[in-house]
């Protein structure tokens, strides 16, 4: 048992608060810059800092966001007035989190598969981030679906890294978000996605148990069971909700307190609609809290509006708040498509 067990349980409860989810704003410098380049926004640290300040200072964002995952650059930044971002979040009632993985690299001996790196020196990085105010963390593994992928070797390599990361987090006082993302890329059917997601979850929890991770103080961040992006037959919202819940019920232990879905390339509206139906129709069947941990599905309208022009910040913040509010409603199964228009 970790010396932080009681604090970890308290953090998990706050993260999974009713009507709230987690905002993923942990894009790496490279990813953030690529999104800026598409909009003609200068790719400088100051512009990234301004954009992150826009997000965390959005009025009443904490009504629907319990915590936000930050990137290393972001957790060290401050507002224009010199107030550390971590303090701004804590004052607003949001828990600071941190991305700990160092990205997915090619898996040796297995063309087409990736393995996430970042375990070296992780104990010391966790200690530093804890001292800075972080109380939870995230590590993402990426699982590709293809004719012969994923391999068992690829699944085990990624699950092992996820489990070692999670154990180190709990030792150091951070709630681990375990994110085995089954990528939406490809022409695979929703049935094939179910099969791969099931295998992924089985191997992940096998490794978590081997590394003695306390399942009651972690959060699972899975992808939904969904048709491949280029599949000719796209499954309905109802089918996605049904298969996603079925897969999770068959493979996620009841001791896990919460599931926070990633949006994984879905449109803003689709990601919200899927989450809503899962809660509206299947909440009674789910032994865990089911919520969101979205990035682009919450941020994109605000980024498009801001466009690098600070005169647009108030309107961009309204759009960010609106998407967070819609997903807060979906967290309760109370979202309707008509709510999209009521900005």
Topology of this structure?
Layout: H1 5-15, E1 21-25, H2 29-39, H3 45-56, E2 65-70, H4 72-75, H5 85-92, E3 95-99, E4 104-106, E5 114-116, H6 122-132, E6 136-143, H7 152-172, E7 175-182, H8 190-210, E8 219-220, H9 237-251, E9 258-261, H10 268-282, E10 289-294, H11 296-306, H12 313-331
Parallel strand pairs: 1-2, 1-10, 2-3, 3-6, 6-7, 7-8, 8-9, 9-10
Antiparallel strand pairs: 4-5
Note down, in words, how this protein is organized:
- Helix content is 46%, strand content 15%.
- With 343 residues, the protein is α/β, with parallel strands linked by helices.
- The protein has a single domain (5-341), classed as Aldolase class I (TIM Barrel), CATH 3.20.20.
- The protein has an eight-stranded parallel β-barrel, surrounded by seven helices. Strands 4-5 form a two-stranded antiparallel sheet.
- Strand 6 (136-143), helix 7 and strand 7 (175-182) form a beta-alpha-beta unit.
- Helix 6 crosses helix 7, helix 8 (190-210) runs parallel beside helix 9 (237-251) and helix 10 runs parallel beside helix 12.
- The mean pLDDT is 97.
